Amino acid sequence: MIKRVASLSQLNQQNFIDLGCSHALLLIDIDNTLLSPYDQRISSQEIQWIKNAQVDHQILLCTNNFTKRQSNVGVDLNLPILMRSFKPFPFKVRSYLKRQKADLNSVVIIGDQAVTDVLLALWLGRPYLLIKPMDVDKHWITRFFRILESKVIHDE
Ligand SMILES: [Mg+2]
User: Fold this and answer.
1) Count of Cβ atoms closer than 10 Å to residue 79 Cβ
2) pLDDT tens across the length of the chain (156 residues)
3) Residue 130: what pLDDT?
4) How many angstroms separate the most distant Cα atoms in the chain?
5) Distance from Cα 32 to the centre of ligand 1, integer Å
6) Rounded to the nearest whole angstrom, what is the distance from the C-alpha of residue 129 to the centroid of ligand 1?
7) Which domains can be identified in the chain, with CATH numbers?
8) How far is the CA of 114 from the centre of ligand 1 (A)?
9) What's the sign of the alpha-carbon dihedral 82, 54, 29, 103?
């Protein structure tokens, strides 16, 4: 079973220490991890979580999406963002990290979807933290994947 926590705000430094990653490069998903499908801008709660996480970690936003809604999150947080990342396939993430001279061995993936975020982590051979999606998905394909995922996810 894949373990899942209730929300991003439940994750703290101890979770990263437990993974052996006290100073990590966090690859954080946007849709339904940081930004609800029903919001246009990131909330102050998520902004605060990111600020706290930046005390110990570097952060790269990583999304398969490509609209202004997602790029605004990067602007609001003043963080780098890899759009159209082709998760779960690792090739674009790998080449981005190489270009940035970032250490793949420090990466921890944070996201809300097993078929994209967790699979990416497995393909990269890196740890992940799966969180419950913030809200109900708008797209039927994502809803379909949620049904499949629910068979292998265990909520903590
Ligand atoms: Mg997501």
Assistant:
1) 16
2) 999 998 999 999 999 999 999 999 999 999 999 999 999 999 999 999 999 999 999 999 999 999 999 999 999 999 999 999 999 999 999 999 999 999 999 999 999 999 999 999 999 999 999 999 999 888 898 898 899 899 899 998
3) 97
4) 38
5) 5
6) 12
7) 2-149 (3.40.50.1000)
8) 9
9) positive
Q: What tokens appear for 136 in the block? A: 């109900």
Rounded to the nearest 10 degrees, the angle between the axes of helix 44-53 and helix 68-77 is: 50
Query: Tokens at residue 53, please?
Result: 């996480």
What distance in Å separates the CA atoms of residue 16 and residue 29, rounded to the nearest whole number? Answer: 17
3-state secondary structure string across 32-63: CCCECCCCCCCCHHHHHHHHHHCCCCEEEEEC
